[in-house]
């Protein structure tokens, strides 16, 4: 168990105290980081972000609160990883995380990618799919799910949604998961039509 003296020393930059905390939390960091996936990153990147969450806990822990350091640290680690998951997996970063260098391709592969122009039929099909999705969502989503879906379209993160709606992260996550399941179901239904 980590004592308050160690936490205080770590807060003021004592490397030995920081090492003790990281060594104690190593199994928790590993287990927690294995639950998350960052698009375009490997396990080490996720683990490093979990370590940043633990550093945040060290810096912001207040011993006069009712929560133990362990509870507070796990909360900080999870929140940091959730925030980073949303960041790395958002549409804004898709170009950066999914891009490949043209120098890594041979000329045949490069020409195949280059020649993939969208035909008018592809564009029309895509617009039809969007229209089907929007019409279906309007029918099956509850009021709170529609609200959450709109926030997702605006690429808002959990914290921003929480501030706007005064809901807990758990409530937001549950609603988002329901929306995702319904969207997947609609897309599956649409694709089965063709």
- What is the chain-wise order of helices and strands? HHHHHHHHHH
Major sheet details: none
β-strand amount? under 5%
Distance between the termini: 60 Å
Low-confidence stretches: 95-99, 113-117
Task: Estimate the helix proportion, in percent.
Answer: over 70%
What is the global morphology? elongated
Q: Got a strand count?
A: 0
Number of helices: 10
Spatial extent as radius of gyration: 22 Å
Mean pLDDT over the residues: 77
The helix-and-strand class reads mainly alpha
Concise overview:
With 194 residues, the chain is mainly alpha-helical. It contains ten helices and no strands.
Describe this structure in words.
This protein has helices spanning 4-11, 15-33, 43-60, 69-89, 94-98, 107-114, 120-140, 143-153, 158-165, 169-192. By secondary structure, the protein is mainly α. The termini are far apart.
Topology (SSEs and partners):
Layout: H1 4-11, H2 15-33, H3 43-60, H4 69-89, H5 94-98, H6 107-114, H7 120-140, H8 143-153, H9 158-165, H10 169-192
Keywords:
194 residues; mainly alpha
């Amino acid at each position: 168990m980590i004592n308050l003296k160690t936490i205080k020393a770590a807060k003021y930059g004592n490397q030995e105290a920081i090492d003790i905390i990281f060594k104690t939390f190593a199994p928790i960091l590993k287990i927690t980081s294995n639950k998350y996936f960052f698009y375009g990153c490997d396990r080490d990147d996720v683990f490093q972000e979990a370590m940043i969450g633990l550093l945040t806990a060290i810096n912001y822990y207040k011993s006069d609160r009712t929560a133990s350091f362990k509870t507070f640290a796990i909360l900080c680690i999870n929140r940091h990883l959730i925030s980073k998951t949303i960041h790395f997996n958002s549409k804004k970063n898709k170009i950066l995380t999914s891009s490949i260098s043209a120098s890594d391709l041979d000329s045949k592969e490069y020409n195949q990618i280059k020649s993939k122009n969208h035909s008018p039929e592809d564009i029309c099909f895509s617009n039809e799919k969007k229209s089907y999705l929007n019409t279906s969502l309007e029918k099956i989503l509850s009021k709170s799910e529609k609200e959450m879906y709109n926030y997702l379209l605006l690429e808002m993160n959990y914290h921003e949604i929480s501030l706007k709606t005064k809901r807990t992260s758990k409530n937001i996550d549950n609603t988002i998961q329901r929306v995702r399941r319904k969207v997947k179901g609609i897309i599956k239904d649409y694709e089965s039509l063709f």
